């Protein structure tokens, strides 16, 4: 019994400094991100919206929804839903607008999750490459939407006379003073930390304990034929499995691997493959309730299908580039 307690205390002593350091980075990053969102700074990133809607044969007013998405995904989608309901956009034009929305929906997560949470966990090099890959995927989908709009849309897909029935002001004006904005940002940050850090601590202890007490390579050797084809180590399998259920836990799992197990390329490719498999979980957990709530079941299913197909395509292409033996 004493030996078990001693091992556990030794494990905690090893995990505590890492967890403390990561928690400090996450706390600072999440708070800074929430302050940026509270003061509307993230909206400046979306100033590109008008340059995208015109080549896609969409009215400038659609840029309002795209700009709003950078600050609030729900508000951005709700604005597009209003445009569709009033007849400004038909179904095809709405789908194109949803695709163009992709990068701007990602922008918010860069500031509130990827930079303050994922980079501290993964480390600077792997973290930056991973976030850059996700940003590139989102941007590629948005550019695809612009090209599709240019090819598939015309004035027949947009009824500009419906603008009289549309409230195109976007997000509501925020009349909070600076102190209230900072306080709200702090409250949101504390809520995020309460959700992430306990889970992070549990996963970190389990991962470090597994790596310390078991031969992970032996445990995953059965997967070597599959991972070998892709050029990934057998340890990628548990990372992918965990990432499928929880992205933060998956990042912790790969960060806890023995040094040298993953290169930057194989680490990022492993996380992206986990992202492909996690779509099945996230679709039922988040996408269906959200999209059905915004659009209804019939059109919501179309939105989910288009979004998922494009994400799968561009993530697969990115993985292929990462694992290509030519560089």
Automatic annotation (TrEMBL):
The chain crosses the membrane at residues 22-42, 62-81, 93-115, 127-153, 196-216, 267-284, 304-326. The keyword Electron transport does not apply. Keywords: Membrane, Transmembrane, Transmembrane helix. The keyword Transport does not apply. InterPro entries: MJ0871-like. PANTHER family: GATE DOMAIN-CONTAINING PROTEIN, NUCLEOSIDE TRANSPORTER_FEOB GTPASE GATE DOMAIN-CONTAINING PROTEIN. This is Nucleoside recognition protein. It comes from Halorubrum laminariae.
């Amino acid at each position: 019994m004493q030996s078990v307690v001693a091992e556990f205390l030794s494990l905690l002593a090893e995990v505590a400094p890492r967890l403390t350091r990561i928690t400090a980075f996450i706390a600072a990053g999440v708070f800074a991100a929430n302050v940026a969102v509270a003061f509307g700074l993230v909206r400046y990133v979306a100033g590109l919206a008008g340059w995208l809607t015109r080549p896609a044969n969409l009215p400038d007013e659609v840029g309002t929804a795209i700009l709003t998405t950078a600050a609030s995904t729900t508000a951005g989608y709700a604005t597009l839903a209003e445009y569709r309901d009033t007849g400004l956009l038909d179904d095809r034009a709405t789908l194109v607008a949803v695709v163009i929305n992709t990068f701007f929906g990602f922008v918010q997560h860069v500031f509130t999750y990827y930079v303050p949470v994922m980079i501290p966990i993964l480390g600077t090099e792997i973290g930056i490459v991973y976030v850059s890959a996700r940003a590139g995927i989102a941007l590629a989908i948005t550019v695809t939407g612009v090209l599709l709009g240019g090819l598939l849309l015309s004035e027949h897909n947009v009824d500009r006379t419906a603008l009289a029935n549309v409230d195109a002001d976007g997000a509501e004006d925020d009349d909070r003073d600076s102190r209230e904005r900072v306080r709200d940002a702090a409250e949101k940050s504390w809520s995020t930390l309460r959700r992430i850090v306990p889970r992070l601590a549990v996963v970190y202890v389990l991962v470090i304990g597994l790596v310390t007490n078991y031969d992970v390579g032996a445990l995953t050797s059965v997967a070597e034929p599959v991972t070998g084809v892709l050029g990934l180590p057998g340890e990628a399998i548990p990372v992918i499995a965990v990432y499928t259920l929880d992205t933060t836990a998956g990042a912790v799992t790969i960060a806890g691997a023995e040094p040298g197990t993953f290169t930057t390329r194989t680490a990022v490719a492993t996380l992206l493959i986990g992202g492909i498999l996690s779509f099945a979980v996230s679709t039922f957990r988040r996408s269906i309730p959200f999209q059905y709530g915004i659009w209804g079941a019939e059109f919501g299913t179309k939105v989910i299908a288009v979004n998922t197909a494009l994400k799968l395509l561009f993530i697969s292409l990115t993985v292929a580039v990462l694992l290509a033996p030519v560089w």
